[in-house]
Amino acid sequence: MVYRIHFTVEDLARTRVAQAPPPLVELNASVRTLQTRSHPARFGAWRQHVLTGLGPQARMILDLIPPRGWSPTFLTPADAGTPQEVLERVRATPRSEIREHLAHVAEWHPLPSWANQLPDDSALLRQLFDSLDHVCTVLLIPHWNEITGDTTADQTIRMRHAIKGGMEHLLANLHPQRVRWNAPVLEMATLSGFDGDLHLEGRGLLLAPSVFARESPSIDIDARPQPVLRYPISDQATGPFRCALPDSLPVPPRTALASLLGPTRAAVLQAIAEHPGCTTKQLATLVRITSPSASEHATILRSAGLIHTTRYRNAACHSLTAVGTAFLNAPGQSR
Q: Model pTM greater than 0.85?
């Protein structure tokens, strides 16, 4: 199915890229990502890490934000600000708006039985907002600095596109797998089966880069002052999930991967996948090898196009490339 966004000249002039993702829009994507097993190389370590921190109170949010499909917009508005600031604003959502958003979701799929009571039950509504605070505290806030750093890097890439060929060139390269610029219409392939047209009517579009939204772009047509299109950050931007590194835990290699690369190099690649941005010294600790050996394996993986290395002060930091991520996510690479 295809959703079509119609632009005028005024819309192109008013379309911009957000400096940071709207926090609760990104939380929505992170909750959905948590409930799937997609992209294990990119998100596997993060899933394992956050699942240990979620309490029973998270269940209400997980029930209202499914892996796919609709979720109530009042829980994930496209407001800018820090996560804490936006969470506080959500608590002031008018009851009429809550009722309207729940009714909209119910048109597409059943809601939990308790959700119908939310607009009229203050205690239950506080419980829901407490659940939202808890989920945000575990899934998003610890990684917020890294997320905003990576989305800023993505913004730089998009601005280069705009400088090279204008806003139309930026839109054409936004997410080629699922977004196509067919002037003056931006055509977006959807996973939800949603089909329709949106005429921006001079408002323009806010393009919000997302670390967690890897499967498909999505749009909030009710956002103010302009609709918000959430799209996956470029694979050139480093992933944010630098979970705490263990002191000296070996990384078990994947069977098929070990057969192809050898057990040590497979372990090095898997360690980089689970700890993007790790230094050569940290990599050596993870795999229980010497730093010179870790550097040698990283050089070979980089030459094969599976990882890229950046310098930060005096350290070399390693992360997967798009090829490396696709390689680890390919069928047959499971443990």
A: no
